[in-house]
């Protein structure tokens, strides 16, 4: 297993962290999901996104493989282009939250703009030994609303502008 810290710090008096965990082979105890049509999801490896606020793993109630997805090898493109807002309360709508993006290769960093005018910048980090497993993570304080999420390339050109997060 290879792990990579994507981000960590303190927000609202709580420690937070996001770690990507890559298993080169499917770990013992993990079973590939089955689709409604009866076929099994493809995958020879497993990529997990482990998020913690105040020492509690987000989605811990889902078991040890919550927030994990099967992938094939070290460069499966299915693992990129997702973004989510995560928290311990009210499905991530209140309390201290984490905005986590699994961006495409050209995204160097993300900037989350908040309702009070502050901005949180987070740099994209890649899991060593892989080419497509990467993320950036930004903490969102309790009581703050997200106004925009922008992603940029290494030359500071904006690649995406999203206003759908709160």
How would you sum up the global shape?
Answer: globular
- Overall pLDDT level: 94
Structural class: mainly beta
Q: Proportion of β residues?
A: over 45%
The H-and-E topology, N to C, reads as EEEEEEEEEEEEE
Residues in helices, as a percent range: under 10%
Q: The biggest beta sheet, please?
A: 5 strands, antiparallel
Intertermini distance: 34 Å
What is the total tally of β strands?
Answer: 13
What is the rounded Rg? 16 Å
- Our count of helices gives 0
Note poorly predicted spans: none
Structural account:
The chain is mainly β and 166 residues long. It is 0% helix and 51% strand. Strands 1, 2, 3, 4 and 5 form a 5-stranded antiparallel sheet that branches. A 4-stranded antiparallel sheet has the order 6-7-11-10, with no helix packed on it. A hairpin with a 2-residue loop joins strand 1 and strand 2. The chain starts with a strand and ends with a strand. 27% of the residues are buried. The model has no long low-confidence stretch (mean pLDDT 94).
Summarize it.
Helices cover 0% and strands 51% of the residues.
